Amino acid sequence: PAEEDLRIVVPLEDVETQEKKSISFSCKVNRPNVTVKWMKAGQEIVLSKRFAYRVDKDKHTLTIKDCTLADEGEYTPPEIQLDAKLLAGLTAKAGTKIELPADITGKPEPKVKWSKADLILKEDDRIAIDTKPGHSSVSIAKTTRDDTATYIVEAVNSSGRATATVDVNILGNTFIFISQYIFTHF
Predict the structure, then answer these.
(1) What is the strand order of the sheet 23-29 is part of?
(2) pLDDT given at position 75
């Protein structure tokens, strides 16, 4: 069986401190001994003399030493809400345009990426990705059977990661070409 997506099962709690003091944040995830990235405002925290990281099975702790006002912030894990019609998947005819919208929340504002199977989607002449605070969507014009896949939207911020998937099935057009030969006798 495939491993389930990594998710936070005991989230970070609000913690207050004073400048020049140390502070620790802990959370638990659903799988033991995994590597996670600690992030603040969408940027990975680089471990240093001020930032220490500890893992004990499924518990992850970040300690910030000698706190400053710059360390202050509000953090909530990202959440993704798909349109209820997409939860069962999407089937469309080849040649049509499809759209996969998702409402995304979290503080700080999560960074969002879309992927098809294991490939990160990039905009091109057929694919458009529109991400703004609270919402992201991908649309694919002139679909082909090659667009049939599982699409994944991922939102990441300093408090965690959320993913949602949509199974897309593009039904191909069948074309029958009939050659007609006309012979003319003079």
Answers:
(1) 8-10, 23-29, 59-64, 51-56
(2) 58
**SS3 per-residue string spanning the chain:** CCCCCCCEEECCCCCCCCCCCCEEEEEEECCCCCCCCCEECCEECCCCCCEEEEEECCEEEEEECCCCHHHCCCCEEEEEEECHHHCCCEEEECCCCEEEEEEEEEECCCEEEEEECCEECCCCCCEEEEEECCEEEEEECCCCHHHCEEEEEEEEECCEEEEEEEEEEEECCCCCCCCCCCCCCC
pLDDT, position 3: 59
Distance CA 119, CA 151 (A): 9
* Residue 136: predicted pLDDT: 94
Q: From CA 98, how far away is CA 141, in angstroms rounded?
A: 7
Which residue stretches of the chain have pLDDT < 70?
Answer: 1-6, 41-42, 74-78, 173-186
Beta-ladder partners of 135: 103, 132
CA-wise closest residue to 162 among 110, 97, 126:
110
